[in-house]
Fold each of these.
Amino acid sequence: MTLQVPEELENDHDETVRLIAAKLYESGKLTLGQAAEMCGMKKWDFAEILINYGVHYFDSSATADLNDFNQSSGK
């Protein structure tokens, strides 16, 4: 997907992508993993980014992600 943004935002490309990913996660359009991937980050690193935007990350998709993690790690 290509998103055309004002030139002023191009200088802050990474920040713009993080904001969009956070808001898509908040609205339920992306899972935590998908939003993290959009930013080129690991899920748990992206969860910290959500705090900067006031987005609560412990919801049903985060719970599912945590269950997946626990199952894959043998817990």
Note: The CA atoms of residues 8 and 16 lie 11 Å apart.
Amino acid sequence: MSEESPEPSVAPLLDALSVRRNAAVGAAAGVALAVLAYVFRLTRVAGPFAGTREFPLLGETGWFLLLSFVLASAAALLVTTLLTLVSLVGLVRSET
């Protein structure tokens, strides 16, 4: 029987890349962007929609809340990824 080496843990890598902090910053940025977009829509700064539109099931407010959630999620993922890549580049440069 050969002894297999235990699986390496990714926790030190996640700590070194500050993924938890980056995720928190990304989530805050995503929520801020979504709230700003939703307020922009509610105050109708851009004016009303051209023509008549129907919003089945959820109504206009429900659909825009759902779109705000999608915007917040996408923005949070993008910001988290970019911050983690910046952390990775900094870590690689400090190691060389």
Note: Helices lie at 11-16, 19-42, 59-95.
Amino acid sequence: MSVANLCHRLQPQVSARTAAGFAEVLRRLGAPLQVAVAGRIKSGKSTLVNALIGRRVAPTDIGECTRLVTRFQYGTVDRVEIVFTDGRKQVLPFAADGMIPAELGVDIDKVSHIEAYLTNAVLQGMTVIDTPGLGSLDAASVSRTEQLLGAAKHRKEEDDEEGSDALDDTSRNAVAGAEAVLYVVTQGVRADDQQALAAFTAATASREAGPVNAIAVLNKADTIAPESVEGSGGDIWQAATLLAEKQASTLKPRVADVLPVIGLIAESAESGGFTAADAEALRQLAELDDDVLQTMLISADIFTSWECDVPAGTRLRLLEKLDLFGISHAVEVVRKEPEITAGALRRSLLDASGLEAVRQRLAVVFAARADGIKAAAALASVTALAHASADPGERQRVHDAIEVLLAKPEAHQLRLLEALTLVASGAVDMPEDLTEEVLRVGSNADLGAQLGKPGAPRQELAAHALERAGWWRSFASFGATPAQGRVAHVVHRAYFLLWQQVRDPQG
């Protein structure tokens, strides 16, 4: 890793404070990608966190814990650590229901954040950060979120290396924060969600969010009224998909995509909440006359109060786990396949939640590019550490080393991420069609998607890559402004490397 080599090489040449910052950058480069789940209050962030982890551990009701940043990371022993602002730690067991205790029994104002360690395979490759909901854009709310996310001292117990406490607040803030963002919106997305996303991502390690390291999900997709979305044909999921596309145009280019999801169903199906008893209750509901069931499914109140053979308490439990849409979907599946097992019914619900599409997009946008995203964040941290130095010579030394690094062929991915951020943020103004092309080439891990020809044969992909490489080289030389030219040279090289990759996939 070229950024890691840079840090190792510079450590003996800089002050103790900056060297300690480089040590933290190196630690982060070796750790799993950190993905922060952000969004407004009551957007269903914690429910989605539980679904992604596959275990119901994050409290979903408003309480002490939902006011704090919680980092879910892999550990050999399940436990909760309260980290105080003065650096003290207090270990707690998980509650009897397997969740983080709703009340911590400490002064919340003195707590920095919570560390939750889980023996969970998902967390071996990704640390998930659950953040306080952005209730408004008032200064106190934004400041608290940024402070909790940015100033937390992130360190696993096995990484407590001697001398790491030399990292002061300025340096720690320079290297803190998540490397990627999953932003949660609901049907009631507001125009200022763009600002809220910007305010949140100012605290991330890259200091900027773009289509390389940020995606959004439209949660609670089942609450959308199909008749309110033109072209939905009365179908809830089609309405959610169309609405997500509309929201993507609002939030782009800060996010790669907006995907619809039903977090509640995903959480119940994925975290063990859906049981054989629930499947049996759904079978009983499926046996009711269709007119009766359709009437019951008009509202939650009617569903729980209607007199029928399924006990009201059982119906309430189903409502809490699946809501009306999930119940309706499950009953339809049971009626089509009466002998379906509880496991197969759970998988059908999981499919209906949209979680798999979100996971696949996470894999494409985040996992496949984790090293590049972490390297870009690390480079931003190194730059911030140098900027914080009081020594002009040290600042110049680090700056020169970064320039040398970026000039090397192996640093092309960093150059591409840098170019992408410049274009996405508007720092370099490009025509709309070229902006879209830069975003496409830089935001996808799939070859066909990068070239705008998914599923095309290799010969066609190779010809297109070579043609676009030539076009961008000409644009860089003759048609671009100096700023556009720098981006164009990077895109030209990206296409050339894609051409080589398509022509010789083993090379």
Note: The two ends are 20 Å apart (CA to CA).
